[in-house]
Write the structure tokens for this entry.
Amino acid sequence: MKKKLLVFASTFPRWQNDTLPPFVYELSKRLTGEFDVHVLAPSFPGSKDYEIMDKMKVHRFHYFIKKYEKLAGSGGILPILKKNPLYFFQVPFFMLGEYLALRKTIKEIKPDIIHAHWIIPQGWITSLMPKKYKVPYVVTTHGGDIFGLQGKLLTKMKKNTLTNAKSITVVSNAIKGEILEKIDSKLNIDVIPMGVDSKLFNPNKKDLSIKKKYNIQGPFLLFVGRLAEKKGVKYLLDAMPGILRKNNKTKLMIIGTGPLESELKQQAKNLKIENNVIFMGAIQNNQLPKYYATADIFVGPSIITREGDREGLPVTLMEAMSSGSIIVATDLEGNKDIIKDNENGFLVKQNSSIEILDCILKSLKDKSLSAKILKNSQKIIKEKFDWKVIKEKYKEMLR
């Protein structure tokens, strides 16, 4: 009989073909061969309280008036709170809802182990379970709960959660270093990134009808992600006038939504590049592979914000690499886990539109270097970041 695994997460698809980042979903569904997988996630207007998705039994809990349950589900909790501070009113109800739902779910399904994604709130809520409901848990942090949540009380909560976990995993060495430096230097932490499906994200998904539809006659640049400060999209837009001076047929496609969407559209107008920038909004995850594969260059201009928030390890970089796009990304520590400068991509300084510009032009001009980079990219994805590799590591961790 399979062991029962309870996956506890605040970011999980609300329905089939959702636009939310699917990394928890993708990992969990690959564990169904080894475990009887149950998922506990927050409700969202339009989602089902219970359903089976790819052999995973998905339970969704309520925590507020149903039509207003939007604290988790349309993006990360922190960005939602920054966008609309009124949602802070829901936080206590969300935490209580999680606590009660977890206790109820443990009582009903009797899991052998819990996989809590993010230290706060899921890991911390798991650590608070009464003795009679205690279950061993593995906690995985993706970065936002480490870099975006600061303060003495929060640090104490994090330390308590991590100290009591069966195992701790982080998606990048940058997150590991932050935990050891600021929370507890004695913790044993494994670095296991999220993965990418190289069968789904590969160069064969190229679709030239995209270029025809959007009248892309020159170089095709792509960004995919939430339109928030830490993504650094403003610096990519600032680089566009210089790129257009060299090739006025270049077009940049931006896929995603977020709090800075209106501001970024206005920036494009102010720079007089609006005819060369395509704001696509959010699209379904199953449509992304063809955009990655058709683009010439994927740009990830992420930064460290004034509050210290940053990305842990962007899955979009792996998806773009696997799809055959050249990568231009900033030199954040998490990005360095994936990108080796001039070997399988380009690294530029944060907040530097000039370096973004220079690397994009360099990639377009030096075809032999680009060919080498693409070859190396495919190799490193298959060896280190394919889900086949990642799932085996988690299988061992969760046994």
Remarks:
- The radius of gyration is 21 Å.
- The chain is about 40% helix and 15% strand.
- The mean pLDDT is 92.
